[in-house]
Design a protein that fits this description.
The protein is of the alpha/beta class and 219 residues long. The protein has a single domain (4-218), classed as Class I glutamine amidotransferase (GATase) domain (Rossmann fold). It has eight helices and nine strands. A seven-stranded mixed β-sheet has the order 3-2-1-4-5-9-8, with helices on both faces. Strands 6-7 form a two-stranded parallel sheet. α1 (20-32) packs across α8 (201-218).
């Protein structure tokens, strides 16, 4: 049977949700690896809604993380509130600022950040069953916050202040070039900086493919 891998989304778009290219590259890598891909998101409102054309915050607008995530999934997304955690054989966490605004609130609270309750439960369940995780870009900050207590190593290095904050949670900020990945075999996490380190689509796609495949080899 194909392994079922869940991609955790936080909306649709770099500034307030999931980075679309990273999610698509990860899905393609999983498909090529023979995995069965599914999508999930917390059933909450986005922490912010951003006009991606102008860069303005749409203060009067509210959007659902699940509904916005369905734009990437090209169909229904499983709300975390109804997800059978036992079905998660592996987890992929793309970046985009939704990872640090909606999945956790690092963008607003810095070191005092907390992980959204259902997201925390999902990651805890994955760790408990020793299932692998692949993360990228801002998804690495979420992983650092969620798994810092177990000294997880993640690909960071694009911002010294972010590295210091992640280190304050116990995570090991591993400096990593855009084309490279970091594999933490103990925590079963493979990560790459993705668009936080470069704007080159080819480099990002290749590194995400390596991180996804490395994660699948961990579990």
């Amino acid at each position: 049977m194909k392994r079922k891998v869940w991609i955790l989304l936080s909306g649709c778009g770099l500034h307030d949700g999931t980075e679309v290219h990273e999610a698509a590259f990860a899905e393609l890598s999983l498909a090529r690896a023979g995995a069965k891909v599914a999508f999930c998101a917390p059933d909450v409102a986005l922490a912010q809604v951003i006009d991606h054309q102008r860069g303005d915050v749409s203060r009067a607008e509210t959007r659902s993380a699940v509904i916005e995530s369905a734009r990437i999934a090209r169909g229904p997304v499983e709300p975390l509130s109804s997800l059978a955690l036992s079905s998660v054989e592996a987890l992929v966490i793309p970046g985009g600022f939704g990872a640090v605004k909606t999945l956790c609130d690092y963008a607003m609270r810095g070191r005092a950040a907390t992980v959204q309750r259902e997201v925390a439960a999902l990651i805890a369940a994955v760790v408990a069953r020793r299932a692998p995780i692949a993360s990228m870009c801002m998804g690495n900050v979420l992983v650092a916050r969620a798994l810092g207590a177990q000294r997880v190593r993640v690909a960071l290095g694009w911002d010294a202040a972010v590295d210091a904050d992640c280190a304050s949670w116990g995570a090991v900020a591993a400096r990593c070039e855009a084309k490279s990945i970091v594999v933490d075999r103990e925590s079963r996490v493979a990560s790459t900086p993705a668009f936080s380190a470069t704007s080159d689509l080819v480099i990002v796609a290749d590194a995400i493919d390596r991180a996804v495949r490395a994660s699948l080899e961990l579990g």
